[in-house]
Each structure stands twice: as C-alpha cells, then as structure tokens.
User: Which sequence fits this backbone?
C-alpha cells in the first residue's frame, strides 16, 4: 500500500467532537505534527472528514 504524509495545519478548538476524535485517531493533535499512514480506504475517509484541518502529500 502507498503511504500518505498527513500534517495538521489548523487547530481543533471549536470543532465538533467527532472531528477532534478523528484527528487523535490519525495520530495528530498539535499543529505542525506530521505522521505517515497507510493509504487504506478507512484512513482516506478519515482524512477527507478533516481535510480542512490537515495537509496531505504522498510519501
């Protein structure tokens, strides 16, 4: 599987609980934190849900 590099670029303050939980599930939680995750359909759906809070690029 391909890897995707995900970086949090916006805060989760004043966001719904489900978006905060998605950020934590991706391994993020602080601005400018970057993680590499497998590009599975589940992870891509999570990234799509919080796409306004993160920046993605192929690894």
Assistant:
């Amino acid at each position: 599987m391909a890897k995707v590099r995900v970086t949090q670029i916006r805060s989760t303050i004043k966001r719904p609980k489900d978006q905060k939980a998605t950020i934590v599930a991706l391994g993020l939680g602080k601005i400018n934190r970057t993680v590499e995750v497998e590009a599975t359909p589940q992870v891509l759906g999570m990234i799509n849900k919080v796409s306004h809070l993160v920046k993605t690029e192929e690894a």
Summary: Strands lie at 3-8, 34-38, 54-58. The chain has a mean pLDDT of 97.
